[in-house]
């Protein structure tokens, strides 16, 4: 035991690393400042469900039904009628030039047909070049339209409401009734931010020793590979824990993201993830030779994990091969865990799958790193 | 028992790809001895030292350091040997004291060891200075302090005085001699001749091969070289005349003198006399210096390589 893991030696290594971290002011500030800054920036900036999109209205008559419809649409928050009196030709141009995202056309016989009891139609043309722009606004439409009409006519209340309710179920209402992207983005951001800082910092930790020539000295002293690994990894794990606190507090206080599930379960999952990340970083640093290479490998790893993990795009929407690829990324499993626990109130049994996988990552990365470690300078 | 030898290695060989960096080098260093390890840059000194303290695995050869097998007992050797790297390899963003505390922790020594070492090497007043801010001499002092703190029986110093001023070098050597008197064995690599002369024995390595070894007078005698010193007004002319003459291997100006060195005394004397007569200078036989020997050996080793 003494030979592979001596507590006193480990503590010495950790203390040294902590002093170095503290002396490197810029990096230290980055480790704590960057997560908060990124959270604020992306938490507010990234929005998959954009609102207040400019719209044009083409209406033949200014009757009460049309007005009711326009008001109802504006009430959803998706539409801002910046061109309320457009002609059909004008509207077409506005849409083509991108000045408006929607054109709402109320036909001239709208009121007449409504009063006759027909099914009147209104036309909404959406600029779907960015599908995300259109989807939210369009999905609320039929319900809003029926509600508006119901109110305006005061007729067939029951029947209309039932129809509306059926539509309502289809729309994204499950865990996020208001469709707030932040609830989805913020927990995911925690994963991305942790990944960014943890993997990058740790991946440079060991290569820094090699680059500065201190590795030769370290190797000539009686320290074991396990001690060197833990001595590098644990201080960064500590920093990660602080980052987690900062981001979780900000999620609660600034973004009001709900914490539905057990806080302890959440912590356990996050710490497992952080552990996997720092050991992955260490693994990278045992393979590369310079800090520059460490940086490159880290970035090479970032892109797929942001794009394929389900952070940016729906995981189940990807083709099978991409999903398999996504399964090999710790972030994928972390997102399942944190979204489950934070937003859905998942129990341990619900998220035990992702937790096991994260644990597996820790073990596999650690074994790979230890086997990669060069005890000599060969 | 081979206990009287601190280092006893034979046939050490290391190749990096196609290149043989160390070629069947054998070394013996007695306990309590200061052994010099000399050779030009890139001759394989550092690689040999690294193999002996378990930092590199030899491709061939075997041996014992402090009685431990260098191939299988690396960890034990690391614990009993103090190794000072050629390049300063302590943490520049840690203070002197923090660096020593780190080393003490790794060797599981108490705080007292750090305090003693600080006092011992006169570092106490500077203990809160960052290692990166120290001058060459103080850095070297810190490195020495760190590698003798755990009281090793053998010290391997890889060009310890590179970039250190003469006074600090002198103090460093005094320190080494004091420790050797207490029974510490020291292997020190250098290419300063004055330092070589402060060693009990020297080993000269060039192009990966051990060329000669022994005490300084032995090495000089074994080289079988003769030296003439020319004094006179037209030395540069004499130098031109002597180059390539029979028996003349080296011609080197030393201040106002010209040293002419060769293996064959008879031919050398004839050539020197001719040149002296032609330029009106005086020639007389002199002692061959260690430096002349090494330059001669280096040239010959290079010829053998070709």
Structure in words:
The complex is a heterodimer of chains A (378) and B (306). Chain A has 378 residues and is mostly helical. Chain A is 69% helix and 6% strand. Chain A has two domains: 7-46 and 180-372, no CATH class; 53-170, abc type-2 transporter like fold, CATH 3.40.1710.10. Chain A has a four-stranded mixed beta sheet, sandwiched between helices. Mean pLDDT of chain A is 79; it is low at 156-177. Chain B is α/β, with parallel strands linked by helices and 306 residues long. Chain B has two domains: 5-219, Rossmann fold (3-Layer(aba) Sandwich), CATH 3.40.50.300; 226-287, Alpha-Beta Plaits (2-Layer Sandwich). Chain B contains eleven helices and 14 strands. Chain B has helices spanning 45-52, 74-80, 96-106, 111-120, 136-148, 166-181, 193-196, 216-223, 235-242, 265-279, 290-305, and strands at residues 5-16, 19-30, 34-38, 60-65, 68-69, 81-84, 154-158, 185-190, 201-206, 209-214, 226-231, 250-254, 257-262, 282-286. Chain B is globular, with a radius of gyration of 22 Å. At the A-B interface, helix 1 and helix 10 of A face helix 2 and helix 3 of B.
């Amino acid at each position: 035991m003494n030979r592979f893991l001596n507590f006193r030696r480990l503590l010495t290594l950790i203390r040294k690393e902590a002093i170095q971290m503290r002396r490197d002011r810029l990096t230290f500030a980055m480790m704590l400042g960057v997560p908060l800054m990124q959270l604020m920036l992306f938490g507010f900036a990234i929005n998959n469900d954009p609102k207040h999109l400019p719209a044009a209205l083409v209406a033949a008559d200014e009757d009460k039904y049309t007005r009711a419809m326009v008001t109802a649409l504006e009430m959803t928050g998706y539409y801002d009628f910046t061109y309320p009196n457009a002609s059909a030709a004008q509207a077409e141009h506005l849409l083509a030039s991108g000045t408006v995202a929607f054109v709402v056309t109320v036909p001239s016989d709208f009121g007449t047909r409504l009063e006759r009891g027909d099914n009147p139609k209104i036309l909404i043309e959406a600029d779907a070049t960015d599908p995300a722009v259109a989807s939210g606004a369009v999905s609320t439409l039929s319900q809003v339209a029926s509600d508006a009409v119901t109110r305006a006519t005061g007729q067939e209340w029951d029947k209309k409401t039932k129809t509306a309710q059926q539509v309502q179920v289809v729309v994204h209402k499950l865990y996020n009734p208001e469709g707030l992207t932040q609830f989805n983005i913020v927990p995911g951001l925690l994963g991305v931010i942790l990944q960014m800082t943890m993997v990058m910092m740790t991946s440079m930790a060991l290569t820094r020793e090699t680059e500065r020539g201190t590795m030769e000295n370290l190797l000539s002293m009686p320290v074991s590979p396990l001690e060197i690994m833990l001595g590098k990894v644990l201080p960064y794990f500590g920093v990660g824990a602080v980052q987690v606190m900062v981001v979780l507090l900000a999620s609660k206080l600034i973004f009001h993201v709900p914490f539905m599930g057990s806080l302890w379960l959440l912590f356990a999952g996050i710490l497992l993830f952080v552990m996997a990340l720092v050991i992955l970083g260490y693994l990278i640093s045992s393979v590369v030779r310079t800090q520059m290479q460490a940086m490159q490998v880290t970035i090479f790893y970032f892109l797929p994990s942001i794009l394929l993990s389900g952070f940016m795009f729906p995981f189940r929407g990807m083709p099978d091969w991409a999903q398999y690829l996504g399964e090999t990324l710790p972030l994928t499993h972390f997102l399942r865990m944190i979204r489950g626990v934070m937003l859905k109130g998942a129990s341990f049994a619900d998220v035990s799958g992702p937790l096991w996988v994260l644990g597996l990552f820790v073990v596999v990365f650690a074994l790979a790193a230890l086997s990669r470690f060069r005890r000599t300078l060969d | 028992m081979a206990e009287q030898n601190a280092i006893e290695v034979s046939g050490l060989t290391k190749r990096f790809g196609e290149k043989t960096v160390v070629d069947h080098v054998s070394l013996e260093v007695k306990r309590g001895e200061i052994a010099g390890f000399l050779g030009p840059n890139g001759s394989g000194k550092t690689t040999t030292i690294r193999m002996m303290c378990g930092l590199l695995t030899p491709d061939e050869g075997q041996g014992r350091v402090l009685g431990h097998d260098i191939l299988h007992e690396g960890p034990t050797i690391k614990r009993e040997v103090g190794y000072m790297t050629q390049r300063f390899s302590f943490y520049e963003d840690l203070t002197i004291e923090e660096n020593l505390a780190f080393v003490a922790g790794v060797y599981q020594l108490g705080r007292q060891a750090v305090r003693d070492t600080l006092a011992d090497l006169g570092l106490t007043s500077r203990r809160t200075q960052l290692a990166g801010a120290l001058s060459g001499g103080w850095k070297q002092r810190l490195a020495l302090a760190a590698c003798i703190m755990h009281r090793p029986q053998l010290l391997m110093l890889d060009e310890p005085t590179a970039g250190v001023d003469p006074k600090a070098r002198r103090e460093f050597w005094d320190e080494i001699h004091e420790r050797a008197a207490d029974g510490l064995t020291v292997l020190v690599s250098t290419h300063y001749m004055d330092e070589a002369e402060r060693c009990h024995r020297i080993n000269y390595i060039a192009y990966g091969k051990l060329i000669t070894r022994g005490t300084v007078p032995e090495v000089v005698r074994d080289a079988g070289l003769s030296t003439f010193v020319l004094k006179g007004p037209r030395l540069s002319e004499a130098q031109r005349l002597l180059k390539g003459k029979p028996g003349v291997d080296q011609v080197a100006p030393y201040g106002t003198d010209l040293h002419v060195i060769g293996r064959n005394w008879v031919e050398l004397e004839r050539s020197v006399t001719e040149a002296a007569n032609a330029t009106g200078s005086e020639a007389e036989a002199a002692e061959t210096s260690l430096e002349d020997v090494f330059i001669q050996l280096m040239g010959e080793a290079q010829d053998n390589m070709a």
